[in-house]
Amino acid sequence: MPTYNAPVEDMLFLYEKLRDNKNYNEIDKYKEVTTDLVKNILDEAAKINQNLILPLAKAGDENPTVLENGVVRTPPGYKEAYKKFIEDGWTSLSCDPKYGGQGMPKTVSAFFDEMLSSASLAFKLYSELTLGAYNCIHHHATDEIKNKYLPKMVEGKWSGTMCLTEPVCGTDLGLLKTKAVEQSDGTYKITGQKIFITSGDHDLTENIIHLVIARASDSPNGTKGISLFLVPKFIVKEDGSIDTRNGISTGSIETKMGIKGSATCVLNFDEAKGYMIGPKNKGLSQMFTMMNLERIVVGIQGLGISEIAYQNSLIYAKERKQGKSTKNQSPNGNADLIIEHADIRKTLLNMKSIIEGERALCFWLSQQTEVSLNHSDHKIKQDATDMVSLMTPVVKSLFSDLGMEITSDAMQIYGGYGYTKDQGIEQLYRDNRITPIYEGTNSVQAIDLVFRKLVNQNGDIIDKYISMIRGDLNKNNKDLSSFVAKLEIYIDKLSKFSTWMKDKIKTSKDDANAASNDYLRVLGYVAIGYSWLKVLEVSYKDYSNNKDFYEDKIQTANFYFNRVLPRVESHYLSATTGSKYIMDFKFN
Amino acid sequence: MPTYNAPVEDMLFLYEKLRDNKNYNEIDKYKEVTTDLVKNILDEAAKINQNLILPLAKAGDENPTVLENGVVRTPPGYKEAYKKFIEDGWTSLSCDPKYGGQGMPKTVSAFFDEMLSSASLAFKLYSELTLGAYNCIHHHATDEIKNKYLPKMVEGKWSGTMCLTEPVCGTDLGLLKTKAVEQSDGTYKITGQKIFITSGDHDLTENIIHLVIARASDSPNGTKGISLFLVPKFIVKEDGSIDTRNGISTGSIETKMGIKGSATCVLNFDEAKGYMIGPKNKGLSQMFTMMNLERIVVGIQGLGISEIAYQNSLIYAKERKQGKSTKNQSPNGNADLIIEHADIRKTLLNMKSIIEGERALCFWLSQQTEVSLNHSDHKIKQDATDMVSLMTPVVKSLFSDLGMEITSDAMQIYGGYGYTKDQGIEQLYRDNRITPIYEGTNSVQAIDLVFRKLVNQNGDIIDKYISMIRGDLNKNNKDLSSFVAKLEIYIDKLSKFSTWMKDKIKTSKDDANAASNDYLRVLGYVAIGYSWLKVLEVSYKDYSNNKDFYEDKIQTANFYFNRVLPRVESHYLSATTGSKYIMDFKFN
User: Fold this and answer.
1) How high is the ipTM of this complex?
2) What is the rounded distance in angstroms from the CA atom of residue A533 to the CA atom of residue A157?
3) Which of A340, A358, A522, B173 would staple A336 via disulfide (CB 3.0–4.6 Å)?
4) A179 part of contact set with chain B, CB < 8 Å
5) What is the set of domains in chain A, with CATH numbers?
6) Per-residue pLDDT at B282 exceeds 70
7) pLDDT bucket at B291, cuts 50 / 70 / 90
8) Which of B9, B164, B346, B417 to mutate: most A Cβ within 10 Å?
9) CB contacts, 8 Å: A552 with chain B
10) B407 near B425, Cβ under 8 Å?
């Protein structure tokens, strides 16, 4: 079984030294979230993840969730762990104190998301979707609904789901068939089938609050006729207690490649009682409130799984002896630790430089997200929203894809042992493999980025982003100059690619579409490079206070700039060859 | 369950039009292997793979091989299928007619290897290792041994294994601990533990012939004291009939991520009777006779799994409707087939251009392999051997890695359905995941390429290879000129990278080591490009005889040159940054 040590030191470094967003620091309610408080939280978080949650990963993989006589049973140990998990208040970390939450900003809760992803992604999903549903209800529902449902969800006694996908519609929700028929009391009867519903049913909570998109009888076709409904597994009485079972049954659960402890359900809604949330026919945009935040969390999942893969690879590389390093002159059979081999070291540094860069980017994004949600100035809020929108598909896709690269490299370091179940390394790979798929496949993210996020009604967002990075390049700092010079090469490339892309969006949508995945990566690699630059700035400035830590940062960044950033080049060259030859191809 | 149609047309195209190696065509015994004969073989091969073998893939994944009371049981259906498989003579395809084989060249048997890999890799491994052992015995054993063991192996009644790995030694065989003690009758008693032994035990054959490397009592440490032994599961009497059980027991079988129908065994040798093969202390080089051929087959496995992943992705993309293409102006919810989307088309063409390029490269390599084994001229033979040596690690690593890319892309095309077990797509991904690991991890291949294959006692092999490609570039052919121009850019890059590498091998081994994986890919992408160029030459020349087929080839090649070849750029940029910063890094 893999071991795990939560990277608290790196997280606290970010929290203390890189909380540099002026607008974020103006948000009153977070002023009392001191580094000391965060340290306490992260120390406790580390304990529960390392001790209680981590063993659930293997348990869930070996004893997947099952559907027995219509009831979904989670793997052994899940119930007990979940009870402790909610008792200690971990579901409520980032929730509104008004409903019993602890009101922590995403700059803190994102660290917890990472740790929980490292420990057990399958277990995490049970509370993650609750928070998604919480966010959506919190944003869009009436006070009556909020008061009725949110406290129990924050407490973790009730969980939540997002019911979007149907057999014929995944990416393209306009095709949905689930119907909502209005009743005389203003409620709706919901009928239809939803598939791939994470935590759709299980035995961890007393009730499950489904957020369901459906089409009201008199609504138009396509995405413009979709409304959002709250549909509880058990009807909730006026006094908040649980009443009869609603018309929802679990048709089946999916047998999956990984995250086997997570119940992925087919849910059949048969005239289930539902309550409309927000205005009619605006369901999709409401659902996206939750989808967007959720997509960032999927990126963080990739980061968390990468971290535990890296940690275990490093441990193994320091234990396993095989082959001679270049320094070994011994003529007999003595072998060196594999960490002495350049290629293994390169692979480990590749992991580390990506992981720490991602974590820094994520921290930057968490500050932006909080500004977008909580700043008092509308313009500042809007600008932050645009940055978050731009980076959401990038973080979701790039981190999940790089999670595949890193878990795969971990398997390679383990060799044959990595392919067997005993070590638990191949499980990391299988568990992470859902992240490039769910919450919108990575290709869908790339298309969303290119066609909806680069330029919007507020202007040329990508241009603002590039200008912001350029503005932040500290060219007079001699320590940084070689890094700045390297990053500039790729910022220029990103800029050129962006201009090309904006032109193609107008003149040849297929060119833009075919180039979108490459473009997303180019933007992502530059964004991580930019985050590294911020880390470097602090590292040189504060060097004497923590020499070993900062030296490690500087050398890790150096690897990123030397060996990871140049990936931009091939993406750019390949993507800008157009698409005519692709569109003309006859697939016989 | 995935469907499969063997790509017989493409294979016959290669066999008929690209059998262009003059030296190969001089080998007498293959002159009667006409295209018609090969067509008959491939048609039959397609049938057995599509109908009999393909269903075994799912059966084996759902009912893995088990060890019960010391006996290994293969999955349901394996026994019956194996019986038919050997009755129809498929194990004997490429074997020497002297021992009952059909004497087909690798230019034919490699196609069969590909088909069988597409249909079920786990099932394939039972006969594949037999052929590995066959080759090794055929090359190195005495006539007595050959006459005693080979006919039954060729017939498929007995199978074979390669027993190399031990708990402490995988890559580094010099560390092996298995002992061989000579007996008065000239036989040896073998004692030790071997792990990760593919087909180490099973119920498909009457006997299993293990080829075991071990250290004789008086042999030196390290790789120079390794000898090779034939150790049968059951002792074979003088008359060829089966006698008592030898001292070999199955300790356990591995629970793996994929290829679950294949028995991966821990074998305990306890004074098992063994017969030395070839000269004492030369066991490693003898084993490598079989390892090298086997490594090419691992590359072909990656190709085969890629092919079936592509075929099913294409089918799905033509059935699944989701989202609107850029041509769709319909304002209501109508969706298009996903094959209308540029990004999906790009992904499919990426797969296809890699697969067909790999197949062409493989066909080129099969001819070289036959020349290296069977040509009458020593110098020609040696030159071919050098080319095969150079390309072996490239084919093994690049094809297996690209197999991961392609099966992963297939999952993305299937979306959520790709992650569930029902479709069988995720199984392709898991099954292929062993290919970058076994027969030497891909990093080990890269190091082998760089330190042993570029330059050897026969001269500068990589230089000969590059000169050969350059010599073949038909610059006066107008049809080809744009392709030639693109390939030249990357040949130049390969040449520059090779010069850098040869210098670093002398001056900084760590630089070379850290760059080796990138170098392997650069060489591989150029080699596939070169193979495409040969395909293109025929396609233009013969265009009017099969317009649709050749147009498809030309357009697919065009994709490869536009979108795949540019990957070279980033590998080169990243790899040539040296390794000092990597070697100096403190992994605390």
Assistant:
1) 0.96
2) 43
3) A340
4) no
5) 288-324+334-580 (1.20.140.10)
6) yes
7) confident
8) B346
9) 586, 588
10) yes
